[in-house]
C-alpha cells in the first residue's frame, strides 16, 4: 500500500468516525463522487445538473444548491461554495441517513432536528433565519407550476394562502395591519411535528440508496 493510498484510507476512516457511515459506504460514495466529477477532486453545480434523474424533480435547483450550502456541511460556516470536495460531499449526504434500531430516543430526535434544519436551509435561501413569503412562494411555484397541472398565478395564490394560514397558527393574535415576517425554524418544527421523515428522507438520484446506509456497519 503506497503512501497516497494510506492517506486516502486515513481520510476515509476519519469521515467514517465523523458521519457514522461505514468504511464500505464511504468507498461507495467516493466512487460515485469520482464518477460525477469526471475523476476530479471537486464537483461543481454543473456536474450535478447533468444527472438525468434530477431533470423532472420539481425541487431540482434546491437539491443542487443544498450540496453547496456551507450551512449543510457542518463546519460552522455560511455562504455558498462554487465547488466542493469529497469530505463536504459526504457531510451533506449524511443528512439523508435513516435512523437505526440501536439509536436512542435522544439520538433519533437529534437526527430529526438535523434533517429539519437541512430542509429549512433549502427554503431560507438568504440565510436570515426566516422563510419569507417570497422564498416560500418560489418553492410552491416550482412544485405546482412544474407539475403542469396548475398555472403560475394559481401557484402564487396557493402560496400566499398557505403563508397566511401559517401566520394565523404561529401568531394567532396578529393584528390586520401587522406584517408576518416569515417562518422561523421553531415554527418550521411545529409545522412538521407530525410528519415522520427520519426514514423517508433518503436520496437515490446519485445511484446511491441512502435508505440502506445506516450508521456504523452495514446492516
TrEMBL record:
It is a lipid-anchor. Pfam families: EF-hand_6 (PF13405). GO terms for cellular component: cytoplasm; lamellipodium; nucleus; ruffle membrane. It is found in: Cell projection, Lamellipodium; Cell projection, Ruffle membrane; Cytoplasm; Membrane. One of its GO terms (molecular function) is calcium ion binding. Keywords: Calcium, Cell membrane, Cell projection, Cytoplasm, Differentiation, Lipoprotein, Membrane, Metal-binding, Myristate, Nucleus, Protein kinase inhibitor. PROSITE patterns: EF_HAND_1, EF_HAND_2. Residues 111-146 form the EF-hand domain. One of its GO terms (biological process) is cell differentiation. The keyword Ion transport does not apply. PANTHER family: CALCINEURIN B HOMOLOGOUS PROTEIN 3. Belongs to the calcineurin regulatory subunit family. CHP subfamily. This is Calcineurin B homologous protein 3. It comes from Gadus morhua (Atlantic cod).
Amino acid at each position: 500500500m503506497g503512501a497516497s493510498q494510506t492517506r486516502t484510507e486515513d481520510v476515509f476512516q476519519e469521515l467514517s468516525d465523523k458521519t457514522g457511515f461505514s468504511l464500505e459506504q464511504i468507498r461507495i460514495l467516493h466512487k460515485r463522487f469520482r464518477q460525477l466529477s469526471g475523476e476530479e477532486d471537486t464537483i461543481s453545480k454543473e456536474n450535478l445538473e447533468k444527472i438525468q434523474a434530477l431533470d423532472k424533480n420539481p425541487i431540482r435547483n434546491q437539491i443542487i444548491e443544498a450540496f453547496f450550502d456551507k450551512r449543510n456541511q457542518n463546519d460552522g460556516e455560511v455562504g455558498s461554495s462554487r465547488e466542493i470536495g469529497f469530505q463536504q460531499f459526504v457531510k451533506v449526504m449524511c443528512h439523508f441517513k435513516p435512523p437505526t434500531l440501536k439509536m436512542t430516543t435522544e439520538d433519533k430526535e437529534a437526527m430529526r432536528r438535523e434533517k429539519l434544519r437541512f430542509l429549512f436551509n433549502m427554503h431560507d435561501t438568504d440565510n436570515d433565519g426566516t422563510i419569507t413569503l417570497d422564498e416560500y412562494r418560489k418553492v410552491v411555484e416550482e412544485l405546482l407550476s412544474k407539475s403542469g397541472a396548475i398555472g403560475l398565478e394559481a401557484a402564487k395564490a396557493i402560496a400566499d394562502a398557505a403563508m397566511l394560514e401559517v401566520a394565523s397558527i404561529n401568531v394567532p393574535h396578529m393584528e390586520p395591519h401587522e406584517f408576518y415576517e416569515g417562518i422561523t425554524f421553531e415554527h418550521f418544527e411545529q409545522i412538521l411535528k407530525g410528519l415522520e421523515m427520519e426514514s423517508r428522507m433518503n436520496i437515490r438520484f446519485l445511484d446511491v440508496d441512502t435508505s440502506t446506509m445506516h450508521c456504523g456497519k452495514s446492516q
